[in-house]
Specification:
Elements lengths: L5 H20 L9 E5 L4 E3 L5 E6 L4 E10 L13 E3 L2 E5 L7 E10 L5 E10 L26 H25 L1
Parallel strand pairs: 2-8
Antiparallel strand pairs: 1-3, 3-6, 4-7, 5-6, 7-8
Helix pairs in contact: 1-2
Length: 178
């Protein structure tokens, strides 16, 4: 014979299990940072080389795992003069004086506030050669590929919290009915 007191406990346990399943099966949020502007702008043609590159995103980015490189016309020489600086949604890096005229590419990789990497490239052209000398690609670390994976730890943590809450509610209800 089933007791009426165990009914709320069973409902709470079923709700906790259903909530945990929903959290663990939920798709990841797609609220990644989006590049809204750059200096130099994409496809800009410049007569004078910039002293720095600046990227502006639609939301603040994390201050970890940021990579910013400026590649020269040969595709392998680097022109950044130091590491990237991050202030809220603004990522910048100083440049050495640029060298040959031609196409340059800003390559970036930042971490969104939600923990996902965002990467891209911005081409621009230097119309008049500058005095700078190239740094070979071997002097700069290679950029890791963006695998687009969703981190698992937030879902596991959320499921554990939800299960723990469900069990605490079920235990409290069983004490009240006893």
């Amino acid at each position: 014979m089933t007791s009426r007191r165990s009914f709320p406990v069973r409902i709470a346990a079923a709700l906790a299990a259903a909530g945990a399943a929903a959290v663990l099966a939920a798709p990841g949020a797609a609220a990644h940072s989006v590049l809204v502007s750059s200096s130099p702008a994409a496809d800009a043609s410049l007569e004078v080389a910039p002293a720095e590159v600046v990227l502006e995103f639609d939301e603040p980015v994390e201050n970890r795992f940021t990579e910013l490189a400026v590649l020269g016309p040969d595709g392998g020489s680097h022109w950044e003069a130091g590491p990237a600086s991050i202030v809220d949604a603004r990522v910048s890096a100083p440049l050495r004086p640029l060298g040959p005229a031609g196409g340059y590419t800003i390559r970036y990789r930042v971490t969104s506030a939600d923990g996902h990497p965002v990467s891209g490239s911005i081409p621009f052209r230097l119309a008049v050669a500058g005095p700078g000398v190239a740094v070979p690609a071997a002097a700069v670390a290679a950029q890791p590929a963006d695998d687009g994976s969703v981190p698992l730890w937030p879902w596991i943590t959320g499921g554990a919290v939800l299960l723990g809450t469900g069990f605490a509610v079920a235990r409290r209800l069983s004490r009240v009915d006893a």
